[in-house]
Design brief:
This protein has 520 residues and is an alpha/beta fold. The chain is globular, with a radius of gyration of 22 Å. The N terminus is likely disordered.
């Protein structure tokens, strides 16, 4: 029996920044970041002292000891550019500059807290500027400068560039029936063409955006802000970045929180399977909640309600639905819209409203969710390069099997495990099949012997980073401490309950390590 039509693989591993920005926009209406304040006299920070820099190779010492100028920006924030080597194997060669923004501490300052929102490809600058005062508690902001940076290849830090806005729109309007030879060949040809555009438009950065290089950048940032040890809060992919840092520099780990953990020992096929099950479970949780509300667009049992959504998706797959804007919503974009709403329970109600419209023949709400998923503004411009950076980083971090037979077998397993989302996660190998730079990363557990206590936070109903991944990472790390939030959605801090917030804040501000097995 032939498989149902399988569409091209699209991103489910969204940046936390994008997801939370969309929540605000959907619930509060359109808004924008404050206009940059006029620059005041710059603050020049002298090069870090030897006690802060630590024992580093002589050829990297100029980067660790560089003088950084901070200027006022974005209404109460400070901005700087920090120089790092393009290639750590050749530190005397070409350099690049990372965009860094900090929100100064409001009270008795303990140091700096570096944050990463995930992705890979999420902007830490955007997280701090757009959400820093809301997302991080007053207690945390009093004690730490909240420091966000755009990792190499992201947004303002020598960004990876692939498609322009019009090309992104056109790409998102395509669906491929991967069960047919013609559909598979079309997807492969487009993947190859997009890779060629990435190479053409990105310059020398493309083969140096791996996670290990970004983790090494973080150690330079640690020295530049004047901390002998790095204090860090990473979300989603940011947990992999933080764990990688801990593995490289265990003696320089300060207070660390890894929230929504990726398991670094997993390969890309295992990650896709974990997410397929996670998103399927999340949709069932959404349906159960929706069926208890007044205006739920689905009915009957939980399984029956999910099946109704799949049947509607099949309509979009067969015939992409028009919207008043002239754009269409394909089966892939319909699935992306549903998946996106699983990242936060604050998006559950907007999804119900969009599905109600969709069942009535209006695709506008689903398109709005899909656009937020892709970080597309109402003006038609894409607000970040997350999609391009996501691909470039993953192609270096994960070896991928592009054998057709392997990918078809994997796709069948994903669809069986997740009839709603499995197709979206299949055919990973095509994404990097024509990538001209070989993967340098290898999945492996990280122990970080000698590091101080590291909080690993897992959410029991997390679709994008399943709870068992947090359990696994906490066990791998010699000093891992698992903290559990019983909730739904992706990551915990900033959206969970007061128990979780207080546990994390007490750790960072007071040095109180929670008891093993703490559950909120």
């Amino acid at each position: 029996m032939p498989h149902a039509p399988v569409r091209r693989r699209h991103r489910l591993r969204l940046s936390l920044t994008i997801a939370m920005a969309a929540v605000g926009a959907l619930l509060l209406g359109s808004c924008s970041a404050p206009a940059p304040a006029p620059a005041t006299a710059p603050t020049v920070v002298a090069s870090a002292q030897a006690s802060v820099i630590g024992d580093v190779p002589a050829d990297l010492a100029p980067y660790y000891g560089q003088v950084v100028t901070w200027t006022s920006c974005n209404g109460g924030f400070q901005c700087a550019k920090v120089k790092v080597p393009l290639d750590y194997a050749k530190p005397g060669g070409e350099s690049i500059k990372l965009a860094v923004t900090r929100l100064p501490a409001t009270g008795k300052r303990l140091g700096s807290l570096l944050v990463n929102p995930g992705g890979p490809g999420g902007s830490g600058v955007d997280l701090v500027v757009n959400s820093g005062r809301q997302y991080f508690s007053a207690k945390l902001r009093a004690a730490y400068d909240i420091v966000g940076f755009d990792p190499r290849g992201v947004q303002r830090s020598d960004p990876v560039k692939c498609l322009d806005d019009a090309q992104m729109d056109a790409s998102r309007q395509k669906d491929y029936d991967m069960s047919t030879t013609a559909g598979f060949q079309a997807a492969e040809a487009d993947s190859k063409a997009q890779t060629e555009l990435c190479v053409k438009n990105s310059g020398n950065i493309l083969d140096h955006v791996d996670t290990v290089s970004s983790a090494r950048d973080m150690d330079i940032l640690r020295a530049v802000v004047g901390d002998a040890k790095l204090n860090y809060m990473g979300f989603s992919y940011g947990t992999k970045l933080g764990a990688t840092y801990a593995g490289l520099f265990p003696s320089r780990v300060g207070r660390f929180s890894l929230d929504g953990a990726l398991d670094p020992s997993l390969g890309i096929d295992q990650i896709s399977m974990g997410q397929a099950v996670g998103f399927e479970n999340a949709l069932h949780a959404w349906a159960k909640n929706c069926l208890g509300t007044k205006d739920c667009p689905v009915s009957g049992t939980v399984d029956g309600a999910v099946e109704q959504i799949r049947q509607l998706n099949a309509v979009y797959t067969k015939t992409p639905q028009q919207t008043s804007s002239g754009r269409v919503v394909t089966g892939t974009e319909f699935t992306n819209a549903v998946a996106f709403a699983m990242y936060s329970t604050d998006l559950w109600e907007p999804l119900a409203a969009a599905l109600k419209q969709a069942f009535a023949g209006d695709a506008s709400g689903m398109l709005m969710l899909a656009d937020y998923s892709a970080d597309r503004g109402s003006d038609g411009k894409y607000n970040s390069n997350t999609a391009a950076a996501f691909t470039a980083i993953n192609c270096l971090d994960y070896p991928m099997d592009s054998d057709t037979a392997h990918m078809r077998t994997d796709a069948a397993a994903l669809e069986k495990a997740s009839p709603t989302f499995g197709a979206l996660l299949a055919y990973s190998g095509l994404t990097c099949k024509y990538w001209p730079f070989p993967a340098t990363g290898r999945p492996a557990p990280i122990a970080a012997p000698g590091a101080g206590p590291i909080l690993v936070i897992g959410t029991t109903g997390d679709p994008a980073t399943p709870y068992k991944w947090a359990q696994s990472l906490a066990k791998q790390l010699d000093s891992g401490v698992l903290v559990t939030w019983k909730g739904n959605g992706h990551t915990a801090y900033g959206r969970a309950n007061q128990c979780l917030t207080s546990t994390v804040d007490d750790y960072f501000v007071n040095g109180k390590v929670p008891a093993a097995g703490t559950t909120c």
